[in-house]
Amino acid sequence: MEKMKTLKALLAADLSGAVWTKSAFSGSTGHDCLEVTRVEGLGYVLRHSVLTDHRIPLTESEYVAYCEGVRAGQTGLVPGA
Description:
It is built from 2 helices and 4 strands, in the order αββββα. It is an alpha+beta fold and 81 residues long.
């Protein structure tokens, strides 16, 4: 249940001053990407670069596990890779 509390806290966090980061490969318009920000002590929040109100909360361990899978070339995490 602790995980659910963390995810809800991430969604409820005030992100008005958050610094969002997106890939350098997000296209010439800069609107073809996911953006991520870190919420200190809780985890990460992903959002769409155009539909910025659509957010996905991730605990620290979830985000790290996903990134490690991408780095390792895990099948299915990156379509076509």
